[in-house]
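To close the chapter, one final illustration. This time we ask the reader to focus less on the individual chains and more on the assembly as a whole: which components sit near each other, and how the overall shape emerges from the parts.
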Amino acid sequence: MEPRLSRYIWTHTRKSQLWILLIVALSMIPYFMSFDLPKQIVNGPIQGQGFETPGATQLFLPISFSLPYFGEVNLFSGIELGRQGTLLALSLVFLLLVIINGLFKFYINTYKGRLGERLLRRIRFELVDRVLRFPPHHLKRVKPAEISTMIKDEVEPMGGFTGDAFVQPALLGGQALTALIFILIQSFWLGIIAFVIVAIQAIIIPRMRRRLLVLGRERQLTARELSGRVSEIVDGIGTIRGHDTSNYERADIAARLGRIFKIRYDLYQWKFLVKFLNNFLAQVTPFLFYSIGGYFALQGRLDIGQLVAVIGAYKDLPGPLKELIDWDQARQDVQVKYTQVVEQFSVEPLIDPKVQEVSVASPPVLSGALAAVNLTLADDGGAKLIEHVSFQVRPGETVAVTGGTGGGGEALAEALGRLAWPASGRIVVGEDDIHELPEAVIGRRISYASSEVYAFQGSLGDNLLYGLKHAPLTEVVYEGDKAAHRRWELLEAKLAGNPSLDLNSDWIDYGAAGATGPEDLFGKIRAVLDVVLLTNDISALAVRSTINSVEHEAFTQEIVEMRAALRRRLEAEKLSDLVVFFEPGSYNIEATVGENLLFGTVTDRARWEEALENHPFFKTVLKRAGLHETFYEMGLEIAENVVELFRDLPPDHPFFQQLTFMTSDEIPGYEALLQKVRGRPLEEVSEEDAIRIIRLCFGYIEPRHRFGLLTEELMQKIVESRREFSDGLPADLVGIIEHYQPNRYMASATILDNVLFGRIGHKHTDGSDKIRAIVRDLFEALGLYNKVLAFGLDFDVGAGGKRLTAGQRQKLNLARSLIRLSDFYIINQPLLALDQRTQDQITRNVFAFLHDEKRDPAIVWVLSNPALSELFDRVVHFENGRLVHEETVEAPSKDSDYKELAS
Amino acid sequence: MLLKDEVEMLRRITLFSGLPPAKLKLLAFTSDRVMYSAGENLFHQGDIGDAAYVILSGKADVLVSTQTGQLKVAEVEQNSIVGEIAILCNTPRTATIQTTTPLEALRIRKDDFLKLLADFPEMAVEIMRVLADRLSQTTSELTEARSRAQRAEA
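The assembled structure is written out below.
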């Protein structure tokens, strides 16, 4: 990158800078005219100069000038106006000038702003572009937060400075020079004095400011480090808490903040010292004028008029000069920042932009062998990970790499996947070095997957298809306003040196997934999800999600119809006790007392709590149903039990996870409450206390909590009072509860709950697994499974995919590679988070999948379980970074394996 | 069955006999009561262990998969604890437990179990005794198997 900011700005904004200079020069004309006008107004019409006689008139706006050799040219002889007329006319001209000046200012400011923003966009893009081309070893050294601070915050002032970069010095310099020349003309010696003082200012102040710049640079570095540390703390919070090192972190942050404070305070001290000096020098000049100029005047070597003129002219000097010095300060400041940033981003060797060029065409099949030639890889410290390895994979060949951690197989795979660059030697496909071939070829024809996963924030489906988004494949046709907006986008992108790739285009390369378009892509997705055993996870995510029942009305209807099918199925399998269904006329023993009473779920927890405490409705209905006292007794019993069970436990005890009635900090409150109300009849207990006790009942489930509180009679009573709750619900509580209706979809409940329309029994340990399997089966049988999966693909995986388990992330990552049709698959222990049984099964699945449909891609698989090597054509064994053993797997065992797979 | 009945039942198990009744109640409350019919698996060899089971009633076989198929290595019945090894050592399940009769068990989650051991050293000692018992049994079986193998060779 260009090391000097001013040159960078000039290169990219030359034309605009010249244009704005011209505009600024033009704007000077009305600006100076408006200086002169007030004097004319005051002297002329107001004080009466030229209107000495009543009825005198003056010419308004005569336009005439004299040209050499040509004489007087009279363009407009002016209008005759009286005193009041002239006053009005001149005032109107003044107003006009004010407007013109304002418009000029408006134009110049917006123009400069736009100029700055464009340059800022350009710098930021260029920096991110560089990040995308960084060599791998550099990316290991930098902290992501520091990079993003640089791109986000540190370059920002450069945008602001851009507009002023050339205009400001020209303008202010001009003004200062004019004033100085004027003084020189009036009196040579006073001019020299002024000049010397200005020179001192111009030399000393920038020098003093150098220290400011050093401090500024330190401030920038420390602030950047701080942001790096803060993000480290956030990322490593688990480790920090786990090792009780939070106070170490506190100390570190405090020390950093202390340093930043010191730097900033130093900065203030210097800044104001410089300011003081600057002001002093500016003020000392008039002192010299008065004393020396006065002395000259007394001696008669200078006339008083000149002295007054000099002093008057000097008033115009410090202003521009100060601004000029400020400008210079700003310039150096952004220059320092710029240099800092550029240093960080000038990394060699950057990947050649040609390698990453956009290519819409599908790349040629790699027909040559993928080979490492005398390859040596080293880690950051220079230790050799593998040494002088020569290794070849022919197209269609399958190779197992064994040797475990530290053997070198992983490093080799990383190098083949271009995650690590060779320290010496080469990696070639056919004849070409893979680092010189375009990524459009290598990045599509070679797929790499390891256990180090990065999932981007977004939906699961987006992440799965991420590896297909190489280039914008469709031309989006925009109409009307959108077309205009698109044109604007393209123009601006060009002016800021950004690429014009359209994000709205369809980036998914269906062909690269073996599909013909969006319609049959889902089949491919389903196939890879099945291969990596992710389908069940996704359907589990889907059925636990709530969907917009208005948008997907047809689907919700099908779900409702499934309820009957599920019952039939459970009956057929003699598993009817697995789920207790919601029946309007009977108590559901597996649901909470609250659900049974309301026969519905609460949609808005906060409003519900509020209503339960304050709304008279619940109390009156409970009383009318004769449940008030029973519930109080029941709540009392629950409270006694819970307090007895949990009283002695520390608040962070894991057992509290089993407690649903209250939180650990509510226990002392209930303990006190119990002492207060124990043995007293309900009438003597305050209403508030009674409610606190009664609300405990709502969460009670007999088979789960097993306190033995529900009698047949009570259940009967609860069922009977359901109607009161549903029919009598006052208008202000409508919407708080969604009632269970056998033939309606509940929008606030998950898909699974909607299918079950009941609760899973507590008796079976794996009840929920079983039911999920049955429901899955039913979905499949009814042809709904793919729709359900589609909802699962909408699941937001969170930042870095943190909402998925580590195992799910690794499966997703493997699926992401498998969905691409490549010639070489480099698979580097991709599933370390899973147990061995599942790993083996997925490995076999992947094998069967990749060799299906007459495809014959090459596979290099770094195995964590050597037992699987019989699947492969060849096994290479690494030890201590050397290839120590290489053998062809005998055909028979492979054959039998294939038979096994086929069966 | 109610919580208090479970407490009665737990009290009869040697492993928990040293615990005060209040703690037994807490243990019963935080654990899941699970039921199996004959022929079901409590857990499967190779799975990641997340809970231990106290058998309240019924019987089950301890099966280990070998190259020749499933091998029954032991039988467990009422009042015994199974599945604690995977929890204590953080290893995959070393065996499969398959019920032979309808079985009722208390499923104690891993974290809860470890916490209990930490809170009640008596229980830890008891667990040690169970493990040591099993080890000595295994050793004697191994010796026997070896000597049988030697005889067969001779």
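The first helix of chain B runs from residue 3 to 11. Chain B has a mean pLDDT of 83. With these observations in hand, you are ready for the problems at the end of the chapter.
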